[in-house]
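Provenance and format

Records in this collection were gathered into a single text stream. Each protein contributes a sequence line and a token line. The two records reproduced below are adjacent in the stream.
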Amino acid sequence: MEREKFEEILTGYLKEIHIELNQEQILQFYQYMELLIEWNQKINLTAITEPHEIILKHFVDSLTIEKEIKKGAVIVDIGTGAGFPGIPLKIYRKDIKIILVDSLNKRLNFLNEVIKTLKLEKIETIHSRAEEFGRNKKYREKFDIATSRAVANLATLSEYLIPLVKEGGKCICMKGSDVKEELEKSKKAIFVLGGKICDINDFSLPNTDMKRNIITIKKIEKTPSKYPRKPGLPAKEPIS
């Protein structure tokens, strides 16, 4: 896709969610897309490879949580994969600090190349399982926001995210269209881990019927030290 067409599509969608980019940011998104398509031929980063779909389903979708993020926030993106939502947020918001966490080194090699090419600052990658990261005293309960997109069911995801945020901080869980069952099954886990659901925002991606839900969990008290449990358990045996 030519840069001019890319700019037209990206800025058109973002206008619908009241986000404007400068020319440097547009170039960074374009470079990101090119790297994603190039690297995806070597390693499996995403099933979404058509430029128009990358713009909508990766870039625009990632930025739908931007208004939830206060100035200067310190954020962790768990199971970031090809960098979503963390890198789009970092391109748009120079004020925030982001740590991208993933369990596969080959994905981190890609992310480090993106960070270097786009000259992004206040962003780093860490190779870790979510459970191990949450037990690391250097990171546990240190973040203003923990977020994740399309990683696990809400009960399991809560055990990954809630231990990472400070009291008063929040978890922003990016979900698809149908979350009623997940919400019901996650109530005990969220309570046990020290969280409370404070907002559920359902919407459609701009100019489409693609439904999304953003579930925001506020951390109201410390997470018991036994959580998260050892790798694999939160997914195999969610708190219920």
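Adjacent record:
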Amino acid sequence: MNIPGGENTKNRHCLSWSDFPEGFTPFSLNPTGARLETKELGPGVYALLSSVPNVDNTGFVVGDRSVLVIDAHINLAMAHQIQERIREVTDKPIRYLVNSNYHGDHTFGNCGFPEETLVIQHRRTAELVPYFREEMDFMLPCVGNEPAIFDGVELRSPDIVFDDYLRLDLGGVEVELHYFGPANTPGDTITYVPGAKAAWTGNMTGGNLIIALESDASAYLSTIARFAQSLEVETLIPAHNPPSSAALLGGYLLYLSQVTSAVRKAVGENWTLGEAMEKIPLDMAQPYAPPPDHPRIGFFRDLHAYNVQKTYQSFL
């Protein structure tokens, strides 16, 4: 097994594919042919759900005075499509645009929104978006190495930066931005609409399995626990999977606690990283693991092996 992290990472700021185990399948984020379908979650509260699996979902909230958008998507075409869906519902000005994290599929579309739209990011996200070229290099394999998808994309930095909490009044509708700690990325932001009990979670939640992309299972566990304890949520809108209920959080807590315990035991018994990745299989995460005949079981095993890797490294 090729153990990642052998290259000099001193001058890197964002993820590199060299951080991943050999053979890891790049995420599938090519938006070509994707249509965002509008789903109303409550009065003035809308999810925009991608017709292509794994390609980003977004959303928007309409108040009496203005509109807030959750995530700008991966390129200009998708950013413009978001605005087209909004204009099918309202002509109110798009006042705010929240980025769930710094990755390009959430931020590259920022430059496609009007200048008067205020871009909002968590402080950790704002610290990473300037490394635009590094992130472009990371995103390219995720779109089939088709650079034309990013034509016209330029860095657009935030206008508003927050730390733990920010409340926004759109006129009769309040939206809350919460930071509960690192999970998938250092600056994961939850966009919560109390009136609809709906939360956009970016990459923090997903489907069957989550990935500690830039944290570890123990840190992720603490973040999910704070989220679950702090907000009354009925609908989770993740970036890359269909909406779900908050019951999914219980499965994440179970899985992350199992990974943390298994890796802690492995480190205590002086297993190497390679041994831990081979001997802590996905099926140990019962009853949460997908069935062996699941059509994406290979990808889930990749995600699990990565979670084991990141958690092992956090104990050293």
